[in-house]
Amino acid sequence: MQSIEVLTLSIEAAGALVQRRFVAPDGNQAGAAANTLGVASYDVAAGEMAAVHVLGTAVVEAGGAVAFGAAIETDADGKAVTNAAGPVVGRALSASAADGDLIEVLLIQN
Questions:
Q1: Mean of the per-residue pLDDT values of the chain
Q2: Theoretical Cys-Cys bridge with 73: which of 38, 50, 60, 86, CB 3.0 to 4.6 Å?
Q3: pTM for this structure?
Q4: Which helix or strand (DSSP H or E) is residue 90 part of?
Q5: How far is CA 103 from CA 34, 35, 80, 84, 97, in A?
Q6: pLDDT digit string (tens) for 51-70?
């Protein structure tokens, strides 16, 4: 699995961020069906500077089974899940079988 970072931004984390999970534009971990800025590249405590991948592909933690090619939204923990009603934040470039699996996602700005 690969990650192709086209653009990575540095932001101040408003809350604790978990590596390979989606980050909200306000610097917090993204919640359920949220708009996102990108994906945290490493764990960060609140108040620290964080690198967030915003364009390209990223390796993301899945929140459950996701099919290859599925539209992605976020769950309550900032993980990638199959889109149901929230903003589409990515497209699955690999599949997951269960919560905690890692998948490659093409990031989509929203």
A1: 97
A2: 86
A3: 0.96
A4: strand 90-92
A5: 19, 19, 9, 18, 10
A6: 999 999 999 999 999 999 99
